[in-house]
Write a structure and sequence with these properties.
The structure holds two protein chains of two kinds. Chain A folds into two domains: 129 residues, Rna Polymerase Sigma Factor, Chain: A; 55 residues, no CATH class. Helices cover 74% and strands 0% of the residues of chain A. The termini of chain A are far apart. By secondary structure, chain B is α+β, with helices and mostly antiparallel strands. Chain B has three domains: 50 residues, no CATH class; 124 residues, 3-Layer(bab) Sandwich (Phage tail protein beta-alpha-beta fold), CATH 3.55.50.30; 179 residues, Jelly Rolls. In chain B, the strands form three sheets. Chain B has a 19-stranded mixed beta sheet that branches. Chain B has a four-stranded antiparallel beta sheet with strand order 1-2-24-22. Chain B starts with a helix and ends with a strand. About 13% of the residues of chain B have low confidence. The chains are: A mainly alpha, B alpha+beta. Chains A and B meet through helix 2, helix 3, helix 4, helix 5 and helix 6 of A and helix 1, helix 2, helix 3, strand 9 and strand 13 of B.
């Protein structure tokens, strides 16, 4: 019989709480694809969404001792994700560069298939008129500028250090191959990571 | 439209990538002023529920699965002959209070074939509204609509950076037939999602299911096919089977039609033969059922009808809730009636409720909230 990777969440959470990296990576492999569309809906930029997810899992790892008390893990994880992503989005609005990049991504993904209710269009128009000419000018610039993601990441303070990238890479590699030796690589990545925090 | 509705609409159109440039400007202006926080919270809460397939506590009665297969002694009464086979119910007392037709209640149309594919790079493709027959995804991967109208995924062999999974999600009120790159056919039921790699590399083909799907796995003796669902792994060589793993159904049930599959969970593992339903019961005990009616009922959704076999009202209502995208609540004592039989899935919600009302149960529909009354 082939030995399958088993997914037992309760047991996993317990192991993670006790610092087991392999279990943590299993948890990651299970939930990252679920969180991704959720986070992306808010931040629109794929690369940023991936980073935000890394941050969310870092928070989870740092607070792993609490996992033993968590009753509804998906709910807990999504709450962390929601709060963190909303913060990021809020910070993003303070930077013209970040906004430019977000608006650019938004335009690439735009669906344009709905007829607007008159009432709603009037509301949009009314708020538009209340925005200062200076702010509107800035926003218009945002729409026209294509900016790199790296600039954006720096600007809103998402950590993008090499170690983290390394960890992401390890986790991704795991997700593609169903490798068995993951425990070791993850361990190395996480130890490196801890040294740099 | 109230201001609250306008804010909700703005947030929705932002999240769904539908906002115009002007709306984006308005969105960020209001966001900066902190006026959208609660609307975003609310919208994301709903999103989370649909991603996790959770309902908000209603109808989550713990007793749902205490039903012992094949031991429910009840009389079957034929109620209404409707196309596919007529609807039966098991009930000791009958009352007949048809839904008040005089009241102006807005009927709700059934679900339809609809899914969103989220691919590498975060693009969302609404497969329902695509008029193209070939979609270029990333690298060499393609999505092609074949002659019979099915979407077929064609993977790429090139290693690529970034997250290497695609997610196919059928929303509430949607279902979706789909062909994976290895030729495996997947029918995804409403409120379900399937995560699969951009290409099946390595020694096995692994996918993760939330919700319900029917699989016809293409034979490949060198690469086992594995479905991860809940905390189980279902390991396959080439076969047809249904997996029901909705987070709000307390058991993950695998129904095998042909071939053989092995179910794995923690340290335990067992084989399933054709015509068998396998699961671990709430005490963690292995269970195998051979019951033609149950097997038929488990795969009926794929063939276009709801089918019940001595199921209680909550099981019935959860299916209705997913397919018609309504929220189900309960008022008063919950009926103990058992329901059996078939109802076509292309009926409107009202038509379905009228059939159910022939049993000792009644409904009130207000917008998208459906209340079950004794």
């Amino acid at each position: 019989m082939i030995d399958l990777p088993k997914y037992d969440e309760k047991q996993l959470l317990l192991s993670v709480a006790h610092g087991d990296e392999a279990s943590f990576s299993q948890l990651y492999a299970h939930y990252a694809p679920l969180l991704y569309p959720y986070v992306l809906k808010l931040v629109k930029m794929p690369a940023l969404a991936e980073d935000v997810i890394q941050d969310i899992f870092l928070k989870l790892w740092e607070a792993r001792a609490k996992l033993t008390e968590v009753k509804n893990f998906p709910g807990y994880l999504f709450t962390i994700a929601r709060n963190h992503t909303l913060n990021i989005l809020q910070n993003l609005t303070r930077s013209q560069k970040a906004m430019a990049s977000l608006v650019g991504s938004f335009k690439e993904q735009r669906f344009d298939d709905e007829v607007l209710v008159n009432d709603y269009s009037q509301f949009v128009e009314k708020v538009l008129q209340s925005i200062s000419p200076r702010s509107r000018e800035i926003f218009r610039k945002c729409r026209e500028q294509g900016l790199t993601y790296d600039e954006v990441a720096q600007e809103i303070g998402i950590s993008k250090n090499a170690v983290k990238k390394h960890m992401v890479q390890v986790l991704r590699t795991f997700k593609v191959a169903t490798g068995r030796d993951l425990g070791i690589t993850m361990e190395v990545a996480l130890i490196l990571l801890m040294l740099h925090i | 439209m109230s201001q609250k509705k306008q804010y909700q609409e703005l947030v929705r159109r932002y999240l769904e990538n539908k906002a115009t440039d002007e709306e984006l400007e308005v969105f960020f202006h209001l966001l900066q002023q902190g006026k959208l926080k609660s609307y975003l919270d609310q919208a994301l809460g709903k999103e989370q529920q649909s991603l996790l397939g959770q309902e908000d506590g209603h109808g989550k009665a713990a007793s749902v699965i205490s039903l012992r297969w094949g031991r429910v002694a009840a009389a079957a009464v034929l109620v209404a002959g409707l196309g596919v086979g007529g609807f039966w119910y098991f009930a000791q007392h009958q009352k007949s209070h048809p839904l008040p037709t005089s009241q102006k209640i807005k009927d709700i149309q059934p679900g339809h074939n609809h899914a969103i594919l989220t691919i590498v790079g975060g693009r969302h493709l609404d497969l329902d509204s695509q008029s193209n027959s070939v979609l270029v995804l990333q690298g060499k991967s393609r999505l092609v609509r074949n002659k019979s109208g099915e979407w077929v995924y064609q993977g790429t062999d090139e290693p690529e950076p970034g997250i290497t999974f695609n997610v196919l999600s059928a929303p509430r009120g949607g279902q979706f037939p789909f062909v994976l790159e290895d030729g495996t056919r997947v029918w995804l039921n409403a409120a379900s999602s399937l995560t699969f790699p951009t290409s099946f590399r390595g020694s096995s083909r692994e996918v993760t299911l939330i919700g319900e799907a029917y699989f016809e796995v293409a034979q490949d003796a060198r690469k086992t096919f594995v479905v991860h669902a809940g905390n189980q792994g279902i390991q396959v060589l080439g076969t047809a089977f249904n997996v029901n793993a909705y987070p709000d159904e307390s058991l993950v049930k695998t129904t095998l039609i042909t071939g053989s599959v092995r179910l794995n969970k923690e340290q335990s593992s067992f084989l399933l033969g054709p015509g068998e339903i396998g699961f671990w019961d709430s005490n963690g005990k292995e269970e195998k059922i051979r019951d033609e009616d149950k097997v038929e009922a488990a795969v009926s959704w794929k063939n276009g009808y709801f089918s019940f076999a001595e199921d209680d009202i909550q099981i019935v209502m959860r299916q209705i809730s997913r397919w018609y995208d309504v929220e189900v609540r309960y008022e008063g004592p919950i009926t103990q009636a058992r329901f059996g039989g078939d109802i076509e899935r292309d009926l409107t919600l009202m038509q379905v409720l009228r059939i159910l009302e022939k049993s000792q149960v009644h409904f009130r529909l207000e917008g998208k909230v459906l209340t079950v009354l004794p």
